[in-house]
Specification:
mainly alpha; transmembrane; about 160 residues; Zinc-finger domain-containing protein; single chain; 7 helices; elongated
Length: about 160
């Protein structure tokens, strides 16, 4: 007795009773020809998901927790985009502020190699003033940006946690 195509189809569909299944598997254990035939059919047959799986996936997809997670993810992306946009805008504003707020400083003086003590003092004073000014601006921007980032982070955390 060798396995025919109907037996293979019944095995694939799971419609064999217990006794037929035991006989089928014991025959495959002893007959290499039938085992090769079954392997060949399995390799050529399309693998399909169980019928209940599609229904479970669709039920899970429309569940409230999945919908909430999708909405939270969408809001989180918008908050991140807003945060990066604000950081970029703050950087551009700081650069423009530095560019236009110190027009009276002549930067060419900083590069000149003057041998006089008076000229070196002027360069050092301008350099010191520029350093202090830029350091103060930098600190202000950092403080403002970090407080803004903290606020946005707290806000997005509240959104993600449902207002808690």
């Amino acid at each position: 007795m060798h396995i025919d195509k109907n037996d293979l189809i019944e095995f694939d569909n799971g419609t064999m009773n217990e006794q037929e299944l035991i006989e089928f598997l014991s025959h495959l254990d002893h007959c290499d020809s039938c085992l090769d035939q079954m392997i060949e059919q399995e390799n050529h047959s399309p693998v399909t998901a169980p019928s209940y799986l599609a229904e479970q996936i669709m039920d899970k997809a429309i569940s409230s927790e999945v919908q909430f997670a999708r909405a939270a993810n969408k809001v989180s992306r918008k908050v991140q985009f807003l945060r990066y946009g604000l950081q970029t805008a703050a950087g551009v504003a700081a650069a423009l502020l530095l560019l236009f707020s110190i027009p009276d400083i002549d930067f060419s003086e900083l590069r000149s190699n003057c041998s006089s003590v008076q000229s070196e003092r002027t360069v050092q004073e301008h350099s010191s003033q520029l350093y202090d000014f830029s350091r103060g601006i930098n600190q202000s921007i950092c403080d403002g940006t970090s407080s803004l980032v903290q606020y946005i982070s707290d806000f997005s955390s509240k959104i993600m946690n449902g207002g808690k």
